[in-house]
Design goal:
about 250 residues; mainly alpha
């Protein structure tokens, strides 16, 4: 969004015409505080693409929090990104975790997955596989395939093969390659199910089919290398004659 577009929105929505870009940004923030919906959406875009640059990361996070409270899902995504990349002071990061924890408790799927990720990897919080499993399980029940794999892995590592088998099956129904690999092995070894070489082969074949499809899709995306239309003209250079000495 350009400075001119900022001015246009402000003049239309707020009824003011700033004299310079710095004034436009300040007026933009004031209009946002007054609850102007159009300005709120535009401010989020400006913050995301660094057109309006806050003093520091903490100020940007503060403004993102404000847009979140008005129901902006994009702001939650930006808050998660900033947290993963380590932006903001420790107190600000804690505020992000506390906020997204509340959102996860209120069944916001992306926040649930976020809570699972940070506890599984120990990102800014103490690593705890059991807490991560609690959040992944909630996301898995909501149908998230990645979370279903995480829950299945959790049970598999605890040798709870029946539960692992069931969750891998759910993920396989959503065409997750990892689930194909695990199910092929479980059918071959009889983990959580009876030995069945036909089904083991079936899932191995599904992996090959998916890889072949992926290669075809990648080949389609590659630009075609056309031969150059410029013809190379070779200039004739006569060979130098060797001088022979007369005997």
């Amino acid at each position: 969004m350009t400075a001119k577009e900022i001015f246009d929105i402000l003049s239309k929505e707020v009824g003011i015409i700033p004299e310079k870009e710095e004034d436009a940004q300040e007026w933009f923030k004031n209009a946002y505080k007054q609850g102007n919906e159009t300005v709120q959406k535009a401010l989020l875009e400006l913050l995301t693409y660094d057109v309006i640059r806050p003093i520091n990361d903490d100020e940007k996070i503060m403004w993102l929090f404000r847009t979140v409270f008005h129901g902006k899902q994009e702001s939650k995504k930006e808050l998660r990104r900033m947290y993963y990349e380590g932006h903001g002071e420790e107190t600000t990061k804690k505020e992000i975790v506390d906020f997204l924890n509340k959102e996860a408790t209120n069944n916001d799927l992306e926040s649930i997955i976020f809570m699972g990720h940070i506890h599984h990897g120990g990102f800014g919080v103490e690593k705890n596989i059991d807490i991560a499993h609690h959040w992944y399980h909630k996301a898995a029940k909501k149908g998230d395939a990645g979370a279903q794999i995480a829950v299945a892995d959790y049970h598999f590592n605890k040798k709870e093969y029946n539960d692992a088998y069931n969750w891998y099956h759910k993920a396989a129904e959503q065409n997750k390659r990892t689930a194909y690999i695990r199910l092929s092995m479980m059918y071959k070894l009889g983990l959580g199910t009876e030995v069945n070489h036909e089904k083991s082969y079936f899932y191995r074949n599904k992996i090959k089919e998916e890889l072949n499809l992926k290669r075809k899709q990648e080949a389609k995306r590659k630009p075609i290398a056309y031969p150059s239309t410029k013809s190379k003209i070779r200039t004739y250079k006569p060979k130098s004659k060797k001088k022979h000495e007369k005997r």
